[in-house]
Write a structure and sequence with these properties.
Blueprint: E1 18-20, E2 25-27, H1 30-37, H2 43-58, H3 64-68
Antiparallel strand pairs: 1-2
Length: about 70
Amino acid sequence: MGYSPCRGGNKRDKGSLQLTNGVCAWPRGLAHYVTEHAVRPPGEFVEHAFSREEALGAAEVDEQWWRAQQC
């Protein structure tokens, strides 16, 4: 629905993307609100994120597809 300015006083653009991991969805600017405005996501979201930390750290990254893309 368009770009979203910060609602905490800083009017810089926070983007228009919604991110997901297939289970949870969050706005691209969530990290800004957590670090700059002390907004805390729901406990279920935080628990899910931490439950995936080990699996994500152990995941193998296949860079072949990315390297094949033309800028």
